[in-house]
Design goal:
The structure is a homodimer of 244-residue chains. With 244 residues, chain A is of the alpha/beta class. Chain A has a single domain, classed as Vaccinia Virus protein VP39 (Rossmann fold, 3-Layer(aba) Sandwich), CATH 3.40.50.150. Chain A is built from ten helices and eleven strands. In chain A, the strands form three sheets. In chain A, strands 3-2-1-4-5-11-10 form a seven-stranded mixed beta sheet, sandwiched between helices. Chain A has a two-stranded antiparallel sheet with strand order 6-7. A two-stranded antiparallel sheet of chain A has the order 8-9. In chain A, strand 1, helix 4 and strand 2 form a beta-alpha-beta unit. The longest helix of chain A has 11 residues. At the A-B interface, strand 7, helix 8, strand 10 and helix 10 of A face strand 7, helix 8, strand 10 and helix 10 of B. Strand 7 of chain A pairs antiparallel with strand 7 of chain B, so a sheet runs across the interface.
């Protein structure tokens, strides 16, 4: 069962004030890269795992998707999504992704942004995703990068060589990490990069592209706060296809 | 053109004294994992890129490979290989992997252990590998892990939280890194994990397994010096197949 930190009042307030919450997809620096990894959305049946405020669901619907089923664990998130991103093609539904089952062949595209690292049982969910995808269907997801989630205490340091650095430890020790992000004691699950990749191949899904997101020179010039992302990326983006 | 550090006298002497040089494959802690990623070798045509002292070539020949072409840039390495790992099925040949061309359809298996991170132009070589592989053929390789190669100055630190850690920086800035390993000024090329993966898919080769090598509990009990490998793995192992 996943921790539902999004219904924690302090967390929800902090999350709601993030650029990606207020401004939607354009407030997420990695969105252009993730968007480039998507198939054409017209007439597609889309499943969104961890839909948050529904920004992607609304984008998919506006792009002509036949249907979007958008799941989130948080009633707060869903209430806001129904309010600001309603569309007749979208069905918002409450679900714990650690327990959700999906109908076989129900999805041309399974999409998930920054949700999987909250889940305890990704092996189970990836089997559900594979079952849900039609042959040739697409899986596009982002997670917090394994280098980001690895250390037991996360934070930048100036290393002994004077370089601003992200100290890695316990990389191969997968499991829960507690961090203070918007609220205290937010629990995320650290998994290695290889674990994410092997979950694909074990489920008859083929990697098509991987991106460890960082800003381009132009993005960096426009927003110098992104400089750290080139030192150690926060986001891992993956696209994959169900084998025929 | 790749730096030929292996023909540097100091480096060669140090390298020759490593367990993996003296004891062969059994002296390399990651070998059991890499071996498990190999196809059956019987009757296969094998190309070994960066063969060193020929330990893998000899293993392949002893396992019934029809032929093994084993390339290395270093004449010192090849002389030793011909001396200690000769086999009628093996052809040892000198080549700079940054310039080598391979014959189309010549390989059922392309193997490379800890060589690619010395090369400047992996894009070119992966196109050669793809061309050389028969449909359904296997590519199995290891490289120094991108987390290992990333920092401009490499080394363990005790971070501000008191954890023994590997400080990451410049992860997305690919290119040469100079380190002092066995000799001064050894030049290796840092590439991101995603770059290795996308080189596969761009060349019609499909990822089948990835492993960020670390010791099991039993291996750790037998050799406590391997403990750091669980904090931040040194080796990335990849297996892949040429699409039909």
């Amino acid at each position: 069962m996943a921790q539902n930190i999004y219904d924690d009042e302090t967390f929800f307030k902090g999350y709601s004030a993030l650029p990606r919450s207020e401004r939607g997809l354009d407030g997420a620096p990695e969105w252009p890269s993730l968007k480039a990894m998507l198939p054409a959305l017209g007439h597609k049946n889309v499943t969104d795992l961890g839909c948050g405020f529904g920004w992607f669901a609304a984008h998919a619907a506006a792009s002509g998707a036949a249907s979007v089923i958008a799941y989130d664990i948080s009633e707060n998130m869903l209430a806001r999504a129904r309010e600001i991103n309603a569309n007749p093609a979208i069905t918002y539904a409450q679900a714990d992704l650690d327990q959700l089952t999906l109908a076989a062949g129900s999805a041309d595209l399974v999409y998930s942004s920054l949700a999987f690292h909250y889940l305890s049982d990704l092996k189970r969910l990836f089997a559900e995703i594979s079952k849900a995808l039609v042959a040739g269907g697409n899986l596009v997801f982002s997670v917090e990068h394994p280098m980001f989630t690895s250390p037991v205490t996360q934070g930048w340091v100036k290393d002994v060589h004077g370089e601003r650095s992200w100290p890695i430890n316990n990389y191969l020790n997968e499991g829960a990490r507690s961090s203070d992000w918007l609220a205290q004691g937010v629990v995320k699950q650290h998994r290695t990069f290889a674990t994410y990749l092997n979950l694909l191949t074990a489920n008859n899904v083929r990697l098509t592209h991987a991106e460890e997101w960082g800003p381009t020179g132009a993005e960096l010039a426009a927003n110098s706060a992104l400089a750290d992302e080139r030192q150690r990326p926060t986001f891992l983006l993956i696209s994959a296809r169900k084998n025929p």
